[in-house]
Amino acid sequence: MEIIPKTGKVMLKPVHKETKIEMPKQYRKKDRWGEVVLCGHPLPEEESVVSVGDVVCFNTAGAKYTDDDFIIIDTKNIMLR
Amino acid sequence: MIKIDLPNIKMQPGKILVEIFGQNETLNAGDIKLHVNVGKAYGTSDMTATGDGEHMERSGKVAAKCNRVEPTQKYNYYTDIDLEIGDEVWFPSSAYAKATRNLGVFTYKERQFIIIDYHLLYMKQNDHGSEMINGYMLCKSVEKCVSNLVVAPKDVYYEDVFLLAKRGKPIEYINRYYDDPSIKEGDYILTRFKHYPKLEEMGHKYYSDETYYVIQPKEIVAIVKSFK
Question: Is A72 on the interface with B (CB under 8 A)?
């Protein structure tokens, strides 16, 4: 299935490896990290916050897990990249 | 039941008086009409599509309307009054359940009315046709192509992909959600969840014989460009 994330959302591929960056404890959980594979348009009056290839740490609130193991999240839920 | 004086009624902001006709007291099974208990199920059951509220009223006619809607924390989007007295309106069965449980059914000259929040109305229909209100979208299930065989397995549908059949004016959410105006009728949408309320249940279809689901724009996560 070929999809395009809605405006203000990005599609991530889960990152299943431990990050080497030293992060506070709450950011270390594996399923909260992902690599951006597709970006929807940025929200009006907002700049694009990430681009394809970025590895981001995100809040799982409102995340959609697709059948082919991708995650679609709001860009507002990206905590750091 | 409380008797009301319909000609002099004035609605509070955000409230609509809807006349109901007891349509769902009978179940249409082909040419046969079966009697059902409409008001026996309570709760927001149609939100989970379990069907517990399947016989509850889902439509009625606007008898009185408010002039404005005030922003409220109860609903997370802004909306404007976009209907006229006499329009037919559709709403969730949970709205009917709540209205009858909290305030009861009002009567005026043998006619029955309930009070519903304007924010809860899905769709209106009048002489000019039907139109979605409050940003709601009318969607259909999408069938999977599972086999090219003449004798194919039972119909299989995508659980979280819908065809957007009808949408109204975009709405503005108060908080983090966004209604993307570029999403248009005919688009295939990927939704956050798999179960959404139906516009009308089997045996109680008055708008269309097809099964339509009612989805808010905030539930859309992506547009499906191809199914390969």
Answer: yes
